[in-house]
Amino acid sequence: MSGLTKSSIARKVVMALSGLFLVLFLGQHFTINITSVIAPDTFNEWSHFMGYNPLVQYLLQPILIAGVVVHFVMGFVLEIQNNKARVIKYVKYNGGANAPWVSRNMIISGAVILAFLALHFYDFWVHEMTYKYIESNPEDPTRYYAETVEKFEPVWRTVLYVISFVLLALHLLHGFASSFQSMGVNNKYTPGIKKFARIYAIAIPLGFAIIAIYHHFNPITH
Amino acid sequence: MKLNLKIWRQKDANTKGQIKEYPIDGIDGDMSFLEMMDVLNEDLIAKGEEPVEFDHDCREGICGSCSLQINGEPHGPDRMVTTCQLHMRKFKDNDTIVIEPFRAKAFPVIKDLIVDRTAFDRIQQAGGYISVNTSGHTVDANAIPINKEDADDSFYAAACIGCGACVAACKNASAMLFTSAKVSQYALLPQGRIEAVERVQNMVRQMDLEGFGNCTNTGACEVECPKGISLENIARMNREYLSAKVKG
């Protein structure tokens, strides 16, 4: 990590690359999750594949976790360094006059997403690890849909998820397009990239929120 | 126009400063902000008080000397102007105006509203130049054909006056807009390509050594820059830096 933090531009690029990787992952995650609303059998099939395919489990999953860790550790490193760069703060600082709230408060939206990830890992990843490796249960390709829907029965969890998705949208509204600038891409394609990033930043979290709300209001009747 | 000024007063670099209030009357809308400060200082001197120290030189927006964080924005609420070009008609009667020095660890306060911006000089000295043989065999710069768009972009980057508003506006006190303008003005020209690999690395290293913060692409610098220096320069510097690292 120390080698990556030597130059301010290297730090930007690390944030951008890890962020873009997580943006791509969000798209893949959403594609699988939306099948839980439109085709539960497909959801079971794909979830089982993701949960038992060795390439996904032993290569892609560690890479994903590493991507998350690098992104949030670097985010905190940048925040600490940036606070040190202005020791005496302004008595009056009109940040809203020259930059949008989302770009100035990535640390707030990021911290909320990190807290959400802790809950999300507890809800699904810890459950999976326990099911497979601690309790050593046999493979059951049909269990995923019911387990997912059950998770959204409590109102508190659905509300926490939806709030987190709002913060995720705010984070992406700045972060997605910003990662291109960090990697030196600012040309005739930039307006198009910004437009696509804005649509993606709203559509994907909105989609996740719709999935959570849908399952809350459509519980499996026992 | 009657105003209530809240001004940062600080005896020297080692003394703690504080905001002091100065009511002022008889300010004309056609006065520049610095002329308003002159009126205040004449009042203070007449009363036997210490005048407020602030940087200024050309008073026509080209030297980069004037600074001032005015109501939370560098060079005040107007766009594409320096403090010396800011007119008092931008304010209303009975307004309260908070005036502070540009804040950054790399811009320590010398006195009152004057900060030490020599960190910018050191970044410039680290690579913001081209080595030209001036022994009498110098090739005329105009003898080298340059694409019009590149020449224009280089000129726009060179319009940076090094005032430090980008640092003052940035929530991270980052100096990337300044440094990228200085890198870009050479990177776009054939004369600047010869030392391009070393230039960008040396200037970024010096920028980091000075203690400026990291750029998080908020774009505040571009909005507040009195010369309209574009964020495209930062993207160009990032490209130059990454390509220099790859080339070694």
Report on this model:
With 222 residues, chain A is mostly helical. Chain A contains 8 helices and no strands. The model of chain A has no long low-confidence stretch (mean pLDDT 95). In chain B, the strands form 2 sheets. Chain B has a 5-stranded mixed sheet with strand order 2-1-5-3-4. In chain B, strand 6 and strand 7 form a beta hairpin. In chain B, helix 5 packs antiparallel against helix 7. Chain B folds into 2 domains: 109 residues, Roll (Ubiquitin-like (UB roll)); 131 residues, Fumarate Reductase Iron-sulfur Protein, Chain B, domain 2, CATH 1.10.1060.10. The relative contact order of chain B is 0.14. By secondary structure, chain B is α+β, with helices and mostly antiparallel strands. Helices cover 36% and strands 11% of the residues of chain B. Chain B is elongated, with a radius of gyration of 20 Å.
The total of helices of chain A stands at 8
Got a strand count of chain A? 0
For this structure, the quaternary state is heterodimer
| Overall average pLDDT of chain B | 96
Task: Give the DSSP E fraction of chain A (strand runs of 2 or more residues).
Answer: under 5%
User: Which percent bin holds the helix content of chain B?
Assistant: 25-40%
Secondary-structure element string of chain B:
EEHEEEEEHHHHHHHH
Strand order of the largest sheet of chain B: 2-1-5-3-4
Largest interface: A-B, 36 and 47 residues
Sheet having the most strands of chain A:
none
What's the alpha carbon Rg of chain B, rounded to whole Å?
Answer: 20 Å
Poorly predicted spans of chain B: none
**Helix content percent band of chain A:** over 70%
The CATH class designation of the largest domain in chain B is: Mainly Alpha
